[in-house]
């Protein structure tokens, strides 16, 4: 048995109903693909936020064990805990004044300190 292949030429007939139906189907498929893409992207964002919060919680619970951290705790200082940029939605590590490098330079250029 041979399977029939879909032939788009068959839908290019002069029948206006066939053309309208073909366009309707195309638009419905495009809408379904778009909605599925949006759902997938939203799920990805939620997973990324959850992982970010989990990373922050783990950073609070277990300080980074390096030679500098160990020597500073031996001297009575607290180990540094990684903090993120204070700009909402930015998860880069803070370098100065609670800002990541990008936002710090932008604020420095605008002189908003």
What's the topology here?
Layout: H1 16-61, H2 67-74, H3 101-110
Structure, described:
The chain has 113 residues and is mainly alpha-helical. It has two domains: 16-78; 83-113, no CATH class. The protein contains three helices and no strands. The protein has helices at residues 16-61, 67-74, 101-110. It is elongated.
**Gap between N and C termini:** 76 Å
* Strand segment tally: 0
Question: In sequence order, what are the helices and strands, one letter per element?
Answer: HHH
The number of domains: 2
Q: Percent of residues in helical segments?
A: 55-70%
Report on the biggest sheet. none
Low-confidence stretches: none
Rg, Å, rounded: 28 Å
Short description:
With 113 residues, this protein is mainly alpha-helical. 57% of the residues lie in helices and 0% in strands. The chain is elongated and about 85 Å long.
């Amino acid at each position: 048995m041979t399977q029939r292949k879909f032939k788009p030429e068959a839908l290019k007939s002069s029948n206006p109903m066939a053309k309208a139906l073909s366009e309707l189907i195309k638009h419905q498929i495009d809408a379904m693909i778009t909605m599925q893409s949006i759902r997938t992207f939203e799920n990805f964002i939620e997973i990324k936020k959850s992982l970010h919060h989990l990373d922050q919680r783990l950073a609070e619970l277990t300080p980074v064990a390096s030679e500098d951290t160990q020597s500073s705790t031996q001297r009575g200082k607290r180990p540094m805990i990684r903090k993120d940029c204070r700009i909402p939605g930015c998860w880069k590590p803070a370098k100065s004044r609670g800002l990541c490098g990008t936002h710090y330079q932008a604020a420095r250029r605008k002189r908003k300190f």
